[in-house]
């Protein structure tokens, strides 16, 4: 497919530091496939991080570097994907402000994730304009690049629909310049942390892409498996096992069938099963670990990737904002007076 005929997609991640297997299989694994087919824009959503971390933004700078190193290590290619930092492109903020002028507050209050996050992060003061307006900033992120699609999980579909509504409202009020992006639903596997809860840094239950092979194997050995199988002699049930989804992602189909049969007949115990998983996981992820060490030793190379990505992203963002200003009759002649 010729470059000029490729449809454009955009996605981003909040900088939270080193990434874990939930991030890899839940998002990055899909991003890698998408860059083969689409013109991809992948960005560090550091302004989005401020919606919940506004009181402690200091670590974000270091988190950005760690996260981008993981992106490069798994195989995101700066020659095929534009990798950039949100806050380096001021046009995001300008379009966010303009969209905020005509986005009805009830639209924001009905977004399901708004109430969910308010409850989940009840220890934080989130009754803020920035937190409520998160979907408007997200719409600006997407539309400033005129993205045709956004890879998301099911829980983020309402955010993409909000973006479509904002695009329609702008196109109706002023001039039809924005496409209505589609949600590209990714099949996100249900993975838990080593303790059976959601994989999260705050729970200290993550397996990180940056973990050395021996650490990864040790963490796998501690994973919760089939809670309904108290003894080795008892038959197990793979579909009930919290570790089994990792097998599906790391072993060939025929080997998975063998494990399922041996588990259900009690021929294979959980300890032995986790040894097989550790071997497969280490074999598949060691190349990522080694590539990560390569980029860790070359921070200037990582910085150059972001500088080039920022430049490419801003060129497109500037073109879009020129159209936006013309559409709303905000011309730039007054700048000549300064």
Total number of domains: 2
According to CATH, what is the class of the largest domain? Answer: Alpha Beta
CATH superfamily membership of the largest domain: HUPs
Radius of gyration: 22 Å
Count of DSSP strands: 5
Residue-averaged pLDDT, rounded? 92
| Gross geometry | elongated
Looking across the biggest beta sheet, what order are the strands in? 1-2-3
Intertermini distance: 46 Å
Helical element count?
14
CATH architecture of the largest domain: 3-Layer(aba) Sandwich
- Category from helices, strands and their pairing: mainly alpha
Return the CATH topology of the largest domain: Rossmann fold
Strand content: 5-15%
Unreliable sequence segments: none
Question: How do the helices and strands follow one another from N- to C-terminus?
Answer: EHEHHEHHHHHEHEHHHHH
Q: What's the main sheet like?
A: 3 strands, parallel
Q: Into which percent range does the helicity of residues fall?
A: 40-55%
Relevant terms:
about 350 residues; 3-stranded parallel sheet; 14 helices; Rossmann fold; about 55% helix; Tyrosyl-Transfer RNA Synthetase; 5 strands; single chain
Concise account of the structure shown:
This protein has helices spanning 21-34, 46-53, 60-74, 91-102, 105-109, 112-120, 129-132, 134-143, 157-173, 213-221, 244-250, 253-264, 270-296, 299-327, and strands spanning 8-13, 39-44, 81-85, 149-152, 182-185. With 338 residues, the protein is mostly helical. The strands form two sheets. Strands 1-2-3 form a three-stranded parallel sheet.
């Amino acid at each position: 497919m010729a470059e000029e005929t490729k449809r454009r997609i955009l996605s981003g991640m909040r900088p939270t530091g080193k990434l874990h297997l939930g991030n890899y299989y839940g998002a990055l694994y899909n991003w890698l496939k998408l860059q083969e087919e689409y013109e991809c824009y992948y960005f560090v959503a550091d302004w989005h991080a401020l919606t919940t971390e506004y009181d402690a933004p200091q670590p974000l700078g270091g988190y950005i570097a760690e996260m981008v190193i993981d992106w490069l290590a798994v195989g995101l290619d700066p020659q095929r994907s534009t990798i950039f930092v949100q806050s380096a492109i001021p046009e995001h903020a300008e379009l966010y402000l303009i969209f905020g002028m005509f986005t009805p507050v009830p639209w924001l209050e009905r977004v399901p994730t708004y109430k969910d996050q308010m409850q989940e992060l009840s220890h934080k003061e989130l009754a803020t304009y920035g937190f409520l307006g998160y979907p408007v900033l997200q719409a600006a992120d997407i539309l400033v690049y005129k993205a045709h699609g956004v890879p998301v999980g099911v829980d983020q579909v309402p955010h993409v629909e909000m973006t479509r509504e904002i695009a329609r409202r702008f196109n109706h009020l002023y001039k039809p310049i924005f496409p209505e992006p589609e949600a590209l639903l990714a099949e996100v596997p249900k993975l838990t942390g080593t303790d059976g809860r959601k994989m999260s840094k705050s729970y200290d239950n993550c397996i990180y892409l940056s973990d050395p092979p021996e650490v990864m194997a040790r963490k796998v050995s501690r994973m919760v498996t089939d809670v309904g199988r108290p003894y080795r002699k008892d038959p197990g049930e793979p579909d009930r096992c919290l570790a089994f989804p990792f097998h599906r992602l790391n072993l060939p189909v025929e080997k998975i069938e063998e494990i399922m049969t041996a588990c259900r007949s009690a021929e294979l115990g959980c300890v032995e099963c986790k040894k097989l998983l550790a071997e497969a996981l280490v074999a598949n992820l060691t190349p990522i670990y080694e590539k990560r060490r390569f980029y860790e030793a070359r921070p200037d190379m990582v910085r150059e990737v972001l500088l080039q990505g920022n430049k490419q992203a801003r060129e497109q963002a500037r073109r879009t904002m020129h159209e936006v200003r013309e559409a709303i009759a905000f011309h730039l002649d007054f700048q000549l007076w300064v």
